[in-house]
Structures are given as structure tokens and as C-alpha cells.
Write a structure and sequence with these properties.
Elements lengths: L14 E4 L2 E4 L4 E2 L6 H10 L4 H6 L6 E6 L6 H13 L6 E8 L5 H8 L6 H10 L6 E7 L4 E7 L2 H7 L4 E6 L13 H9 L1 E9 L4 H9 L3 E6 L6 E6 L14 E4 L3 H12 L4 E4 L15 E3 L9 H17 L7 E2 L3 E4 L3 H13 L8 E3 L1 H8 L7 E4 L3 E3 L1 H9 L4 E4 L4 E7 L2 E6 L4 E4 L1 E4 L5 H4 L5 E2 L1 E12 L9 E3 L3 E2 L6 E5 L3 E2 L8 H14 L18 E10 L5 E6 L5 E9 L5 H16 L8 H6 L6 E2 L1 H4 L1
Parallel strand pairs: 4-5, 4-8, 5-7, 8-9, 12-13, 12-24, 13-20, 16-27, 24-33
Antiparallel strand pairs: 1-2, 2-3, 6-7, 9-11, 10-11, 14-19, 15-19, 16-18, 17-18, 21-22, 22-23, 25-34, 26-29, 26-30, 26-31, 27-28, 28-29, 32-33
Helix pairs in contact: 1-3, 4-5, 6-7, 9-13, 9-16, 10-16
Cofactor: FAD
Organism: Marinobacter subterrani
Subcellular location: Cytoplasm
Length: about 625
């Protein structure tokens, strides 16, 4: 028997192909009917959950949630997606599909299996392009321009239902036959199915086994036998009785203060779900402050131990890579990224990291000095870790593209000096006399957030000055990929390449300085001795260099914050939220945290497991007045 993989790896499914149909070697059962798997899915899951008709009745800005206990080849998901596109509402609405898989298919097997269904090919191709790496935990895929959201949990089913926060409208109780895979049908699993259901939730399953029917009835479902598909005589369908109709979602009015990458990404996420947003900023346009650099590297530093912090970083990295692909060739440049083992300390850290973890090659690959030099196009003094899906962005341009949406109203030149609750609304007051009223407010205001939060006490934010240096293209050996160490170095954009940034605590100087340029050049040449063409003359005239200063916001524990504001007493405010504390990794963390916060603001299933939600809470940042004094 093979030994378990090191974290965060997960064992892929082992398939046997018989007459072109995949079977699980582990469980000895087929993934779908040999007669016609797609028609079986439509008969069992779509028809007996009444989905085409129910899809058509989803209200504007609403959503419909399907949960499934075995993703397999994704055939059930694709059938539901196809039906949503055909029968779903014309107004903005979202289909959420939540599924668990303990032994996920490798991308190659998924591609082969779904090739059996030519009519699903456009959807299958999009799924395959966005299919996540085989690592444990939660993966959120945003598909069909945001009309469809797939939450995939790679791991044990009981862990999944305990970790995820959602309530299903319909269940696809798939998985293998109970006799082949009894763990799928444990009483604990059925109890969790009930916990994640609401009045009116329906279910359907291939099986008609008596103990399954009795277990579902015991937790409150009305369950009946129904005609099965093909050679299967019977199946089960059920419903959780409803005493009153469900409430329709009303998004109300929402304002986001701060039009950096966090505010713009959140505004765009909500707008694509049909939620109108007012984006407020003191500058003349989006992407003018901390997110205003011409270039930025998209990377994280994964921890030696696979803990919550590392899991959040990994989920953010892989989600961001998928998210930015929309702007590939415009503002996103996936050149690959090299993290150098540039010192003895970092080389030892990377050695321990590789000993204790197992990441698939589509996440990262250890490389020698020779391989590092070949991949980056610049001679290096060490090897390191190669991230093939990473690269660099144009943050300023990306912010402006994100904010350009008919559901987003941009109010620039408004310096907010006060935020007050009054008569169930938030009143945003600008220094120039501007007043904006909204039902809910999100602060994406970095280290300035503490000034606006109307709660007694203090929230622990830190401001860190960072200066980048603009290097003339003709002065450098232009790399093919992003190179990171004590500094990052981007491939040139036009005639300039950005390197940096300094890390200046307790320095409020907003202007670039020659000393900071000198520090950037010193650290860069220590990392890459051959990066400057004219090394004898230091390659560049430091006094003539241009650059830019921005102030990163981080927290006392250097982890981001996303969620409702803690009220300083016992609970959280229901209509005031924070998204900040992203530090130097804002380009990586923003897409996932914007997705998570948009889930919460729109009342939809959240994309993060409970352990990571706790890590983001605002409560941990709060210091009471007596502690402050």
C-alpha cells in the first residue's frame, strides 16, 4: 500500500478504462452509467430535483446552491451548469455548486473522461483550464464570467461538511454504491447533509438502499422511491418540508472606501453578481495610492510547516493565478517566478520546506542554479523554487479596468473624515462637505482604517513605507521572469523595469529618496550580481533614478483581515466590514479575500473553510481603551 503524501498533496484517483468508461480501481465501481451517463445525470439529479423550473425562478441578485458528495469526473456539475445557462434567470444571479472529492482525478484523466461528451465540450474546456492543483482543502473556481461558482473540497467528506459554510437548495447524493464505498454514507455524513439544508431543500440519489432511505427520513427528509435510469429499477428522491417561503435577498446600497486593488477587486466582484456599488477614494482615480505602481510581483512565501497561515497563502496564490488570467496579455504577465535561495539561511529554509511538504509541479518546482539561470534569463548564484503559474501585474492599470463597470459608481476626490451610523444607515462625510449614505460600508483604507472605525479602542495596524526603483531597460540584463529574494526584479515594461521595495518602519516620508534607491540597488546586486550591464560603474547613476513611494498596511501578526468589524464588546457589526492588512502581498491575497467578502456581503456560500475564516477575523486586532492607555 502506498504511504500517504506529505501535506498539502492528495492522492489522485487511480482509473481503469473499460470500453472507454472510467472505473475506480480503489472502489471497483464506474463513475457514470455505461448506458448514457449524461442522460442518467439529467434523469436522477436534474429532473428529480426539479432544477430547470427552479432555476428559472431565481430572483435578480439571487443564487441557487447545489451540493454534491462526490465530484468524480465533474459530469454532474457540467450538466447542472448547462441547464443553468439554458433555464437560469436573465438577470444577474449565481449558481453555486459545492462538491467533495477524496481522490480527485488528475487533469489528464479528467480531460479524457469529459471528451466522451462533445455537447459539453465548451464547458468542459473551461473547467479543465481552471482545474485546481491536487492539494488538500478548498478551491473556488469562478466560471462563465461569474454566473457559476464551483467550490471543490479535496479531502474527506466529513471534514468538508464541517469546514464549509453553506445551505443547499438541492443535493446530488452521488458517490459510489454504498456497498463499494460505505464511508460515503456514514450516519455522520447524513447528519451533516441535514445541517447544510434549509426548509424546501430537495435531494436525489442513484441508490435505493433501505438503510440510506431510513437514515434520511430520521434526520427530517420526506423520502420516496422513484423509477431509476436504465438497468436500475429504483432511486430515491426527497425534500425537507418547508413551512414558509424563503426570503428574497435584497443587497441594499453598498459603499467601498478605498479604490486600491482591494477596493476595486471587491467592487468588481459584487458588481458582477448584480450588486450596485459606490467606490469612494480621495485620489483622482482608482489605483493611485499603494496600488499605483506600474509593476508588481504576484507571489507568496509558503511556510515550512503547512499550517493555517500557509494554507491561506496557498489558496490565495492559486486563486489569484486563475483570477488574473482574464487580463492575460493586458495587465497580467504570467512569466513564471523564481524565489532564490540566495543566502545560507534561505537555502536551509527551502531545504526544510521541501523535506516536509509535497506540492504538485503546477504549483512549484525546486530548481538548481543552472536551471534557475535558464528559466529567468539572468545568471544566478543559487537555485531556488520556481512557480510556473506566477508572474507580474500592472496594478495601476488593473485597478482602473476593475472599476470600469456599469454597476460601479466611482466618487473620487472625496477625502473621508468621518463615518457615522444614523437611522440604520452609514453616513460617509468628506472633508469637502460631500455626504454619501449607504446601508453597508467596506473599509479598504489600509493603515487609515483605525481613524474611520467608529468603535472605542484601537485596531492594530502598521504603516510600512516602501520605495520602488525604476531601472532603465538599457542598464540591465532584462530577465524573462520575476526574480525574488531580498528584493524583486520584474521584466521590463516598455523601457523601464521596477525593482524594490524598501521596508521602512517609522518613516513617513512620501517622497522617493536617493538613499532608498541606493539601498534597492545594493540589495538587488547582492541578489543578482550580473543584473546591471556596467558593473564597474554600478550600472546606473543612482541620483538620476526615478521611483515611487507607497505605504503598505499590515497588522500586528502580519496576516490580512477580512470580515465584519468587531464592535469592541461581544459581537460584530452587521453592516461595517474591513478588507486590509495585506502588506506586501496584496496582489496575491486580494482576489481570494475579495471573493470571500463578496460571498458574505451577498449572502452566498463562502469560499473559505472555517479555520481560515477565523484567521481573518477583525477581533484579533482589537485593543480595548484600557489596553491602549
Amino acid at each position: 500500500m502506498n504511504s500517504p503524501l506529505l501535506p498539502p498533496g492528495i492522492e489522485p484517483a487511480e482509473l481503469a478504462w473499460r470500453d472507454g468508461v472510467p472505473e475506480s480501481v480503489r472502489f471497483g465501481d464506474v463513475y457514470f452509467s455505461r448506458d448514457n451517463g449524461l442522460e442518467e445525470t439529467r434523469h436522477v439529479f436534474l429532473r428529480h430535483n426539479g432544477l430547470p423550473d427552479r432555476f428559472s425562478r431565481v430572483p435578480e441578485c439571487g443564487h441557487f446552491v447545489i451540493a454534491e458528495n462526490g465530484f468524480g469526473t465533474g459530469l454532474n456539475f457540467l450538466a447542472a451548469w448547462q441547464a443553468w445557462l439554458s433555464h437560469g434567470p436573465a438577470a444577474p444571479a449565481t449558481l453555486h455548486f459545492i462538491s467533495v472529492e477524496r481522490f480527485p482525478l488528475a487533469r489528464e484523466d479528467l480531460t479524457r473522461a469529459l471528451a466522451l461528451w462533445p455537447e459539453l465540450r465548451p464547458l468542459a474546456d473551461e473547467l479543465i483550464r481552471n482545474y485546481p492543483p491536487l492539494v488538500r482543502g478548498v478551491h473556488r473556481l469562478v466560471l462563465a464570467g461569474g454566473q457559476v461558482r464551483l467550490t471543490l473540497y479535496f479531502g474527506d467528506i466529513t471534514d468538508a461538511w464541517q469546514a464549509l459554510d453553506f445551505h443547499a437548495d438541492a443535493w446530488f447524493l452521488d458517490g459510489f454504491a454504498p456497498a463499494c464505498n460505505p464511508g460515503m454514507w456514514l450516519n455522520e455524513t447524513i447528519t451533516q447533509i441535514r445541517a447544510h439544508s434549509k426548509p424546501g431543500t430537495t435531494l436525489a440519489t442513484f441508490t435505493s438502499v433501505g438503510r440510506i432511505r431510513r437514515a434520511l427520513i430520521e434526520v427530517g427528509f420526506d423520502v420516496q422511491k422513484a423509477p431509476g435510469f436504465g438497468r436500475k429499477r429504483h432511486m430515491l428522491r426527497g425534500v425537507l418540508p418547508a413551512s414558509e417561503p424563503a426570503r428574497e435577498y435584497n443587497p441594499g446600497s453598498l459603499a467601498i472606501i478605498g479604490a486600491g486593488i482591494a477596493g476595486c477587486a471587491l467592487a468588481r466582484n459584487l458588481a458582477e453578481r448584480g450588486v450596485p456599488v459606490t467606490l469612494v477614494d480621495s485620489a483622482s482615480g482608482p489605483g493611485s495610492e499603494a496600488s499605483g505602481n506600474a509593476q508588481g510581483a504576484m507571489y507568496v512565501k509558503l511556510g515550512v510547516e503547512f499550517n493555517d497561515q500557509t494554507e491561506l497563502a496557498l489558496q490565495a496564490l492559486t486563486f489569484a493565478q486563475r483570477f488574473y488570467n482574464t487580463w492575460r496579455g493586458a495587465y497580467w504577465h504570467p512569466t513564471g517566478l523564481l524565489q532564490l535561495a540566495q543566502s545560507d539561511q534561505e537555502a536551509d529554509r527551502q531545504r526544510r520546506f521541501l523535506q516536509r511538504n509535497q506540492y504538485p509541479e503546477d504549483v512549484l518546482i525546486p530548481v538548481t542554479r543552472e536551471q534557475a539561470s535558464e528559466l529567468s534569463g539572468v545568471a544566478t548564484n543559487s537555485g531556488g523554487l520556481w512557480f510556473p503559474g506566477s508572474g507580474w501585474l500592472e496594478p495601476r492599470n488593473l485597478c482602473r479596468a476593475l472599476a470600469d463597470h456599469p454597476m460601479i459608481s466611482v466618487s473620487c476626490g472625496v477625502t473621508v473624515d468621518r463615518l457615522l451610523p444614523c437611522n440604520g444607515k452609514w453616513h460617509i462625510s468628506g472633508a469637502d462637505g460631500t455626504t454619501i449614505v449607504a446601508d453597508r460600508v467596506v473599509l479598504c483604507t489600509g493603515h487609515l482604517s483605525s481613524r474611520l472605525i467608529p468603535v472605542k479602542g484601537r485596531f492594530r495596524f502598521k504603516s510600512i513605507r516602501g520605495q520602488v526603483t525604476h531601472l532603465p531597460r538599457e542598464a540591465i540584463q532584462n530577465p524573462r521572469a520575476v526574480i525574488c529574494g531580498n528584493r524583486y526584479m520584474n521584466p521590463a515594461l516598455g523601457q523601464t523595469a521596477v525593482t524594490g521595495a524598501t521596508f521602512d518602519l517609522n518613516d513617513a516620508n512620501p517622497l522617493p529618496t536617493t538613499e532608498s534607491h541606493r539601498e534597492n540597488i545594493r540589495e538587488l546586486t547582492a541578489m543578482l550580481p550580473s543584473i546591471l550591464k556596467d558593473t564597474e560603474a554600478d550600472g546606473v547613476d543612482v541620483a538620476s533614478l526615478e521611483g515611487r513611494v507607497a505605504f503598505r498596511c499590515t497588522t500586528h501578526d502580519y496576516q490580512p483581515v477580512a470580515g465584519p468589524v468587531f464592535d469592541g464588546e461581544d459581537s460584530e457589526l452587521e453592516d461595517l466590514f474591513l478588507l486590509t492588512g495585506l502588506g506586501s502581498k496584496g496582489l496575491t491575497y486580494t482576489p481570494l479575500l475579495a471573493e470571500y467578502l463578496a460571498d458574505r456581503l451577498s449572502g452566498q456560500p463562502v469560499c473559505l473553510p472555517a479555520n481560515l475564516v477565523r484567521r481573518l477575523e477583525t477581533r484579533r486586532l482589537y485593543l480595548a481603551e484600557q489596553a491602549v492607555s
